[in-house]
Design goal:
Elements (H helix, E strand, L loop, with lengths): L27 H78 L1
């Protein structure tokens, strides 16, 4: 049997040599890690899909709310114009009525 020392464990280039008894490391850990990563990516993909659906629902709700608010704004504007016209006509009629009442008294 040869004695093992640091010089016997290096190849001619100077890199360490792995003894034959150690063999290759097991691939179980790497495979398990890859499977866990795939599972995590699947969960993340599902979560992103759920968020996209939620955003789409919220977008539809906001769009509907904007349409409703636009209709309400138009109705308020129309009501304001109609009330303004009514007040102006009422004021004109009241003024003319007052003039007629004053003339009839005098």
């Amino acid at each position: 049997m040869t004695s093992l020392n640091k010089e016997n464990l290096k190849n001619p280039i100077g890199n360490p040599i792995t003894p034959e008894s150690y063999g290759q490391p097991g691939h179980d850990f790497t495979l398990q890690t890859i499977l866990e990563l795939q599972k995590s990516i699947g969960e993340l993909t599902a979560a992103v899909g759920f968020l996209k659906e939620s955003i789409d629902k919220q977008d539809k709700k906001v769009t509907k709310l904007e349409e409703t608010m636009s209709k309400v704004t138009h109705k308020i504007h129309t009501a304001t114009v109609i009330i303004s016209i009514f007040v102006i006509i009422s004021g004109f009629i009241a003024n003319k009525s007052w003039d007629i009442i004053v003339k009839s008294i005098v």
